[in-house]
Design brief:
The chain is mainly α and about 450 residues long. It has one domain. Helix content is about 75%, strand content about 0%. Keywords: Cell membrane, Membrane, Transmembrane, Transmembrane helix, Transport.
Amino acid sequence: MPAVVTAAEELPEPVAPGWQLLTGTLVAIALLVLLITVLKLNPFLALILGALTVGIIAGENLLTVLDSFSAGFGDTAAGVGVLIALGAMFAKLLADSGGADQVVDTIVGRASGRGLPWAMAAVGAIIGLPMFFEIGVVLLMPVIYLVARRAQVSLITVGLPALAGLSAMHGFVPPHPGPVTAIDLVGADLGVTLGLGLLVAVPTVVVAGPLYGAIAGRWVHVPAPDTFDEGREERPVDQRPSFGATIGTILLPVVLMLAKSVADIVIDDDGSVVQQTFDVVGEPFVALLIGVLVAMWTFGIGVGMDRSKLSDTITSSLPPIAGILLIVSAGGGFKQVLVDSGVGTLLADWAREADISVLLLSWSLAVLIRLATGSATIATITASSLVLDLVADLPTAEVSLVVLAVGAGSVFFSHVNDAGFWLVNQYFRLTVGQTIKTWSLMETVLSVSGLVFVLLLSLVV
């Protein structure tokens, strides 16, 4: 289990009166939308100006605001940014080798037109079970592009179900950091929470994925972009990696990360060589690095690429994601300014005074902190910390349901202060308005559906 992270460590005390912080946050978000949608300013610059706006209205020293922004930018670039870069290399190898074509041929060949969104939701859920959301997006994008192109449907129709699967696992199911830390904080049983989490996640993915994706695909029709297609020729079937080798390589980082999580549970001696080995190879950075190295063989040398072609493939994977890295990192900087201002703490204190059931309160706390900070993990940790006294005397199953209610709230309405919003915006090549109508509303459907299924489970457990 990870060390307990308290709400106080994540969200400091407000730096200004409540009305001032709330005004600053709302004005900054409105400014972002105006700059990006009306004035067509690059989101990277808009996020910097939005962060400064929060600080100015809150009355903070601008040097302090810049320090917060830089810290958030650096942390996001060092964490998510490195994973995106490695994932892009992996994805380019998958695309250029014909491995993505092999997966697409299998999915399209075995699923009818109506069945494709369901197949993509299942793939997203399986990949997302142990994998961080950002890594899963990068790994699945070439497959999503090709499925949309081959099936001649909107990228949204097949892409949203896959994103729903990824996001649901991130919010509801261990070993993701939010759920695992929440389990530790409130003293929930991991096995019970995992079982109930899967019961909630499956129908939630169905509602937010294939069902909502079909509606959103009619609202927004976008063709699959050519992000991974530059200089790429479709390889003949006999020159592609086999389906088994392709799936095995894709799942290798997944298995390594899952093995680490299992080892954390079953091995008591944290200092043992076995535990330390799993800790290293299961670290997302190391697991994905190993995946890239293996992919260089299975997707490179194994299909006849020489060293020059392999080097060109790796090198060409990075320029298309340069803008994504900057925007996602700037989103992390904007989030950190909000976190350091204390607006999340303020909203959490307001919500805790409400006289509602512990499940609704837990969900509402997570929603408010998610909206304020843009971080699902911070929302999960903070909301869980705030309801500790309320769950002290609850039965085991009900404590697990509180964890799931918090997880549902933590994915509510991803918007411009969430790095994931910009990741989807850039990979799907959507406008801000299109991203809100598709991704943001899908996250909202996922959150509300998750709460509904948690409440239904509370009637029978």
